[in-house]
């Protein structure tokens, strides 16, 4: 598993794009025509677009870069690319998937229908195609509903991008269902409280990981997210392989790109316990569901069981995913 640090990439222009917004809106500018209509313009990797009143953070550009890179590689190897951008905001990801990854089709969805005009204006830089074979479509429904309807109609996607707030793991099952075998699932969590171990019951409910405060909470946040997806997929008889993970301090934001395939995990070695001693700083991983038996004598004999935080937790909690 790669863990990448945040870094801003330089802009790469796309001169072939129709650009209805002159260059005076260089990187981020606001133009208020009246109190009710607000236009905000941004530029990312050479693409100009509007954000309007939608939720947009330019700090997330690297996360979008990585999604686009994975999508472009997928298109190269499979010669097809259908994408569902489930929580698209102003539609910048959808636009970048269409332009940079040359997606054949993007379904851009955001529950907030106030974003519709902005999304449509942004995507209209790419010709929409015919009614029978559109390049892009915009919808405004709960992402779970869109994905479930696609699944029921057997309209599967090569890449599903879930750019959600907090630790909303309710998207996992519908997203996995609507994904083609060997497809890519790009997930997000912004729940720093859970990864920091401050809401163990919440992380347990969301991802099946009882997380306590650890000095490497950023890594734990990524593993927590991967672990939740692994568990959901395994219920459906599917296997998840992490391709990359990315932590960014703004938010904080945890992103993981997963490949989902047929076939169960070969054994339970992907489930582990992580122990950490707050006194000596020693950290240890116990692999497999037999960990409890392995850990018991260790914890009984060491100061962990009486003074360390994790000696007892090891016996009482489900595992957090440790090995990918
Ligand atoms: C983090 S923002 C998306 C940002 C966008 N992907 C980008 O890269 O700029 C999350 C978006 O999800 C939308 N949203 C929240 N709950 C949703 C749901 N259940 N289904 C679909 N969209 C939802 C919000 O309106 C918001 O625009």
UniProtKB/TrEMBL annotation:
Any one Gene Ontology cellular component term annotated for this protein: nucleus
GO molecular function, one term: tRNA binding
Domain of life, per lineage: Eukaryota
Example GO BP: tRNA N2-guanine methylation
InterPro entries: SAM-dependent_MTases_sf, Trm1
Sorted UniProt keywords: Methyltransferase, RNA-binding, S-adenosyl-L-methionine, Transferase, tRNA processing, tRNA-binding
UniProt similarity note: Belongs to the class I-like SAM-binding methyltransferase superfamily. Trm1 family.
Name listed for the protein in its UniProt record: Uncharacterized protein
Native species: Cannabis sativa (Hemp)
């Amino acid at each position: 598993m790669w863990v990448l640090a945040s870094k801003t990439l330089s802009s790469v222009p796309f001169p072939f794009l129709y650009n209805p917004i002159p260059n005076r809106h260089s990187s981020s500018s606001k133009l208020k025509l009246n109190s009710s209509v607000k236009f905000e313009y941004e530029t990312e990797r050479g693409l100009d677009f509007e954000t309007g009143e939608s939720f947009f953070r330019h700090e997330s550009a690297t996360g979008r870069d990585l999604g686009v890179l994975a999508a472009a590689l997928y298109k190269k190897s499979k010669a097809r690319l259908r994408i569902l951008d489930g929580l698209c905001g102003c539609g910048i990801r959808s636009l970048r998937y269409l332009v940079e990854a040359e997606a054949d089709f993007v379904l851009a969805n955001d529950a907030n229908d106030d974003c519709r005009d902005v999304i449509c204006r942004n995507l209209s830089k790419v010709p929409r195609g015919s009614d029978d074979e559109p390049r892009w479509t915009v919808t405004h429904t709960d992402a779970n509903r869109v994905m479930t309807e696609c699944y029921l109609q057997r309209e599967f996607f090569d890449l599903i991008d879930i750019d959600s707030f907090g630790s909303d793991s309710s998207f996992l099952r519908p997203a996995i269902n609507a994904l083609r075998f060997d497809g890519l699932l790009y997930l997000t969590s912004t729940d720093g409280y859970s990864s920091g171990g401050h809401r163990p019951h919440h992380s347990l409910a969301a991802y099946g990981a009882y997380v306590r405060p650890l000095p490497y909470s950023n890594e734990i946040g990524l593993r927590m997210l991967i672990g939740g997806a692994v568990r959901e997929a395994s219920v459906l008889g599917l296997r998840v392989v992490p391709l990359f993970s990315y932590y960014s301090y703004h938010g904080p934001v945890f992103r993981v790109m997963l490949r989902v395939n047929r076939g169960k995990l070969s054994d339970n070695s992907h489930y582990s316990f992580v122990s950490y001693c707050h006194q000596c700083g020693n950290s240890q991983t116990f692999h497999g569901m037999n960990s409890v038996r392995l850990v018991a004598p260790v914890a009984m004999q060491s100061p962990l069981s009486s003074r360390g935080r994790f000696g007892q937790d090891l016996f009482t909690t489900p595992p957090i995913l440790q090995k990918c």
